[in-house]
Amino acid sequence: MSLKLSGSSENLILPVSDTPKDLDGERHYKDDEKLFKGSAMTKRGAYAAISYMSCAVLLVMFNKAALSSYNFPSANVITLLQMVCSCCFLYVLRRWRIISFAAGESLVISDNSSKFVSLKTLRHTCPLAGSYLLYMLATMESVRGVNVPMYTTLRRTTVVFTMFVEYILVAQRYTSSVIFSVGLIVFGAFIAGARDLSFDAYGYALVFTSNITTAIYLATIARIGKTSGLNSFGLMWCNGIMCGPVLLIWTLLRGDLKMTVNFPDLFSPGFIVVLLFSCTLAFFLNYNIFLNTTLNSAVTQTVCGNLKDLFTIGLGWIVFGGLPFDIWNVVGQLLGFVGSGLYAYYKLVGK
Question: Which domain of life is it from (predicted)?
Answer without folding.
Answer: Eukaryota
